[in-house]
Amino acid sequence: MRLVVSGIPIEVQKKNIKNMHLQVKPPDGHVVISAPSSMDDKALEVYARTNLGWVKKQIERFQEQPRSAKRQYVSGETMYIWGKQYFLTFISDAQKNSFEIVGNKVYLHMREESSVRQRESYVREQHRIMLKGEIERLLPKWEQITGLCCESWQTKYMTTCWGTCNTDKKRLWFNLQLIQKPVECLEYVILHELIHLRERTHNEVFTAYMDLYMQNWREIRKQLNDSMLDYYDAQDERPLQKLIDQRRYEEIKNAVSSHLGGEVKQKKAMLSDIEIQDVVHIEQPEEGYICFDIIVSCLMEYSAPKSDKTSVQERWLRVHCQVLLGIELSGFQIVWVTECEQMEEAGNKKFSGELVPVISRSSFEDEATGFLEKYYPKALKEAVPVPIRQIAENMGLTIIEKELFSDGSDVFGILFLEDGNIQDKNRNIAIRNAKRGMMFIDSRHYHAFGNVNDMIAHECFHWYRHQPYHLLMKMLGVRGDISVIRCGVNLDDRYTEEWKTVDWMEWQANGIVSYLLMPAKTTTRKIEEMLREYHIDSDDAGSGHQMEELISELASFYGVSKQTAKSRMRELGFHCVDDVPG
User: Fold this and answer.
1) Residue 27: is the preceding peptide bond cis (ω within 30°)?
2) Residue 454 to residues 367, 512, 525: CA-CA distances in angstroms?
3) What percent of the chain has pLDDT over 90?
4) pLDDT band at 544, cuts 50/70/90?
5) Which residue has the higher pLDDT, 557 or 23?
6) Which of 96, 328, 461, 537 is 20 to 30 Å from 551 by CA-CA measure?
7) Torsion angle (degrees, nearest 10) of CA 112, 116, 119, 122
8) Of 511, 513, 512, 491, nearest to 502 (Cα)?
9) Are β-strands 420-423 and 429-434 bridged in parallel, bridged antiparallel, or unpaired?
10) 99: left (phi over 0), alpha (psi -120 to 50) or beta
């Protein structure tokens, strides 16, 4: 639910809580009200208007916080390292990446076609190396001065704080942006976080220790807080997290309350509120359901013995869940609850927050093996053509070959995830009354994509791996053409930083086709056998005519295009195809 009060959008989250909570959240100053489920909308609006003055001041504070412009990592841009200004010079270098400081200049060597995201990632890693070097030098110094020692520390790119401390595990985190500030700012943050190991809150005791060890810490803190933070792109919470917050908040809160129940009794503590912060470790251990961990922050109120005073402590928990895949979050189960760290990384995710599988090019072989083990294991043992049409039928898919659109569209295939119609660019019905599982293939695009088997394999992989994304979008009530997957011929991979989720799914399906139709081990044996028959050395191209004949025969045997067969040979290490034209 969303309110707009005096032009300010306010997100409303209704939960099973007793009191309302109003927050203006960093780093962009968006406004959130957590309210009891029974609270009516008019009361919420009155509450928001009553606090409007405070809200505007907080938003203004975030908006006035200085942030640098978004970098493009091109020559002429400025860059700060340890508080000193440098001028960036970008040098095109296809051989190796390098980052070099000479005088007041930073020389960045990378490929000319490298994207902004690739350049940023590389520069941040160089910053991390420099920052870690200084922390390794300065942290022992301040540990010796204070007598306080951490168990471990790490760097992390953060948008709202310079450092953080997990007092229970004695772990410190330092913002990667500290590399841009004078070294004394890093020393201040190190001391600040170390003292938190002794005193959790910023009370008089904490201040006294800061005064004892660093008399000018207030001036350094002001310098640091007045410094410019990096450009920030506001990101909405991920869809799965939003859905769980909307539909399963009560069950999660009950599980957390039960987990903390013993502590509540012993320490006279009260769980005042919980907030879902993230969803991590998303995996699909078996077909039909997914597992994930929900990271939850809890506010615990502790009463002091023989006193009316209370203290508030933030606790972080990991809630492990599983849920059936379907149009609702059915079969939702909370398996266990345990303590975790505030800044803990997601780590080894198998799905994104939008339930799209995380698949790299290096894992295509494993993906294809999993597919074939399920639908045609014979191809993993013998060099045989993969009967992709029969596999599609066994998956419950119906193949229809027809001209899809008459408007020159570059869509070569459409896969229906639910019953429906498809319109062309002129809003005319191009496909009417299609059923779930129907696969429409446009034969006019065979020459561009490969051949019909390549296209069918493409759609089969979508059905096999990408349904969870569309189910999630439907559960969220996302409008638009989410009942189908449209597959296009032209996917430009030079600008991946601009890709949407559907583009990454297309990239995965495009890339996996040759791995599905020509599995590695058995195809390698087949190619070696054919090379012997043609008397061609695997490291020598031999005659171009012979190799072209071999490629044609291989393509015909597996039912793929010549280009697919040639590319697959190269992937499998048969460089004898390198000199074959086309």
Assistant:
1) yes
2) 16, 10, 21
3) 33
4) confident
5) 557
6) 461
7) -150
8) 491
9) antiparallel
10) beta
